[in-house]
Amino acid sequence: ITIRQATIDDIQAMQNTNLQNLPENYTMKYYMYHLLSWPQGSFVACTYDDTVNDEDESDVVKYDCNYISRENEKIVGYVLGKMDDDPESQAKNPPNGHVTSLSVMRTYRKMGIAEKLMRQCLYSLTENYKAEYVSLHVRKSNRAALHLYKDTLAFEVLSIEDKYYQDGEDAYYMKKVLVLDE
Ligand code: ACO
Questions:
Q1: Residue 54: which pLDDT band, with cuts at 50, 70 and 90?
Q2: Quick one: angle between helices 28-37 and 11-21, nearest 10?
Q3: DSSP designation for 169
Q4: 65-92, pLDDT tens digit by residue?
Q5: How far is the CA of 125 from the centre of ligand 1 (A)?
Q6: Nearest 5°: phi and psi at 73?
Q7: Contacts with 37 (C-beta within 8 Å, 6 or more apart), sequence order
Q8: Which residues contact 34 (CB under 8 A, 6 or more apart)?
Q9: How far apart are CA 72 and CA 160, in angstroms?
Q10: DSSP string covering 89-152, please?
Q11: What is the mean pLDDT of the chain?
Q12: Residue 120: CB within 6 Å of ligand 1?
């Protein structure tokens, strides 16, 4: 598994991964907005599929699978990160980041991929955009993600946002203070 910065070429694969894994979905424009505004804020996890062969017609179907974004490369997870760009909030707070979305394809879970994506994102938002803290929302019922944020990455719950999600579920609003490398 390789973790690398996400590029515009990856957007379709990221969107496909998101559609398969989460009910919170975004327009292509919103992915584009993240990558154009904060190119060092989003990352993908990929594997290389050696069985894909250019000359073999039967592989066309593999290229059609929209989570293969480059030749032989298959996106299996992503993290979509941004900086706070709301003028009202910027006036009140130090530079801070936000994790918009994170997901890993089912068959690649529990291998440490989400932790790697998150650590890379947090490090990059601090180093490149001077984020002093990073926040995110997560469903109250999302045990896997809560374990990752709370126990593995030491995020703290700041508040509960009532009926944050469209289906009426509450969200934990979580935050992690980051320390810049000198
Ligand atoms: N139940 C309990 N703990 C779990 C689970 C689970 N189902 N899955 C992972 N964990 C724990 C791991 O054991 C590990 O803990 P450790 O550090 O104590 O060993 C930690 O969480 C990190 O595990 P990873 O292997 O890095 O996580 P993974 O790659 O499996 O991805 C994720 C976790 C992203 C939550 C995945 O399950 C997923 O894609 N779920 C669906 C989408 C989703 O819920 N995304 C997050 C929404 S919130 C947001 O986007 C801001």
A1: low
A2: 120
A3: -
A4: 445 556 678 899 999 999 999 999 999 9
A5: 21
A6: -105, 135
A7: 82, 83, 85
A8: 41, 42, 80, 81, 82, 100
A9: 42
A10: HHHHS-SEEEEEEEEE-GGGTTSSHHHHHHHHHHHHHHHHH--SEEEEEEETT-HHHHIIIIII
A11: 90
A12: no
Paired tokens of 89: 């909030």
pTM of the model: 0.93
3-state helix, strand, coil in the chain (%, to 5): 35, 30, 35
Instruction: Tell me how many degrees the CA angle 78-120-153 measures, rounded to the nearest 5.
Output: 95
Q: Using a 6 Å cutoff on CB, does residue 130 contact ligand 1?
A: no
Phi/psi class of residue 82: alpha, beta or left (left: φ > 0; alpha: ψ in -120 to 50)? beta
Q: How far is Cα of residue 120 from the mean position of the Cα atoms in its chain?
A: 10
Q: Please give the distance, rounded to the nearest whole angstrom, from the Cα atom of residue 23 to the centre of ligand 1.
A: 16
Binning pLDDT at 50, 70 and 90, where does residue 141 land? very high
CA 37/CA 42 separation, integer angstroms: 11
Determine which helix (DSSP H) or strand (DSSP E) holds 177, and give its type and residue range.
Answer: strand 171-177
